[in-house]
Write a structure and sequence with these properties.
The chain is elongated. It folds into three domains: about 1-135, no CATH class; about 140-220, no CATH class; about 230-350, no CATH class. The protein has about 350 residues and is an alpha+beta fold. A four-stranded mixed sheet has the order 4-8-9-7. Strands 1-3-2 form a three-stranded antiparallel sheet. It has helices spanning about 5-25, 30-35, 40-50, 65-80, 105-115, 125-135, 185-195, 220-270, 275-285, 305-320, 320-325, 330-350; strands spanning about 25, 85, 115-120, 140-145, 160-165, 165-170, 180-185, 200-205, 210-220. Strand 8 (about 200-205) and strand 9 (about 210-220) form a beta hairpin. Helices cover about 55% and strands about 10% of the residues. Bound molecules: zinc ion.
């Protein structure tokens, strides 16, 4: 490889590494290869699912170019004080076999691939958590296949398959057909069911449009799902009690807000009869939060909003506005016609 093209590749490696570091405070060779566009996320998924014998098979780049990517990454990482962390890669199959990167299994190259580089800025506890997360064995994977397929064990088929030694088998042959399916969507239920289940597997389906595998749900033991459901129901009781308390508190606040609104109306319009001010404030409160008062900025009553509420009330009750609308007069025209009437009432109330 010429020196010019090598330094160009090195710049691209650095750019990909910097992007990954900014994103996740760590960089792996896989991050760089996907960043370079040499490796698709979907391919990485399939390799992790045990469908690809070794990762380099899925890479079209020549071996010397790959070696130079790994070397550039290492150089950049060391120059920038990143800390190496050897990360285990095991497959998402039941045997949890180690995943292979290279065709020949060369130990030095395998180690280079397994080495993640971690930001030196990361505090010790976050660094430890990150390493823990990255080293965790992946969830077992069950695929919801898109195409017709035949089980290697019984020559039957099914709507879900597991890969064993790279071959698809049905859930019965995989001895996983006692598991029940929990569709994705309820995070708390999923987390608890998974925790309670001795065996669980994530069900994935390839989205052709997005070019990656998407989570459909989780297969878990039935007893685990029931336990998780009970826990979530208990939560639901707690939540509904909390909601009732919140409602009461809001009702109190509404009363207080209404009183303050009425007071503000009488301050701005001293001539407004007290019961009218009360009615306007009540109506304004009933119209929901926001019209008057309940702003994010706090409880400050906004004079413009108070005035608008008063104008609206006068328009409907002290003028022929509603009658005009009923008779089919367009709203803008109707407002124009009653403007003087509204102003007269407001002038009187201001006094
Ligand atoms: Zn089978």
């Amino acid at each position: 490889m010429s020196g010019a093209s090598e330094s160009k590749l090195e710049r691209r490696v650095v750019a990909a590494a910097e992007a990954a570091l900014a994103r996740s405070k760590a960089v792996s060779p896989i991050d760089v290869l996907t960043g370079l566009g040499w490796l698709h996320t979907r391919t990485v998924d399939e390799w992790r699912q045990g469908r690809v014998a070794h990762l380099e098979r899925a890479l079209t780049a020549r071996a010397d170019r790959l070696a130079s990517v790994l070397a550039s990454l290492r150089r950049w990482a060391q120059d920038n004080g990143l800390r190496p962390s050897e990360t285990p890669y095991v497959s998402a199959t039941r045997d949890r076999g180690p995943l292979r990167f290279t065709a020949d299994g060369d130990e030095a190259a395998e180690l280079a691939y397994r080495t993640h580089w971690i930001s030196p800025d990361l505090p010790e506890d976050r660094r430890r958590r990150l390493i823990e997360r990255q080293s965790k064995a992946p969830d077992l994977v069950v695929i919801a296949p898109l195409k017709d397929w035949t089980c290697t064990g019984c020559h039957g088929t099914g709507d879900r398959q597991v890969l064993e030694d790279g071959e698809p088998v049905c859930l019965t042959c995989a001895e996983m057909d006692h598991l029940v399916f929990l569709p994705a969507g309820d995070a708390a239920l999923t987390r608890r069911a998974k925790k309670a289940s001795g065996l669980s597997a994530v069900v994935l389906r390839l989205s052709r449009r997005r070019g990656r595998y998407e989570r459909q749900g989780l297969l878990v033991e039935e007893a685990a799902l029931e336990l998780a459901e009970d826990q979530c129901l208990a939560d639901e009781d707690v939540r509904s009690r909390r909601r009732a308390r919140d409602r009461e508190r809001r009702a109190d606040e509404d009363l207080e807000l209404r009183a303050r609104t009425a007071w503000e109306i009488r301050r701005m319009f001293p001539g407004c009869p007290a019961e009218r001010a009360e009615a306007i404030a009540r109506h304004t409160g009933a119209r929901g939060s926001g019209r008057v008062g309940r702003s994010a900025a706090g409880r400050a009553l906004d004079e413009t909003a108070v005035r608008a509420a008063v104008v609206a009330a006068v328009r409907h009750e002290d003028t022929g506005y509603d009658a005009l609308l009923m008779s089919g007069v367009p709203r803008a025209v109707a407002r124009e016609r009653i403007r003087a009437d509204v102003d007269r009432v407001l002038d009187r109330w201001r006094a």
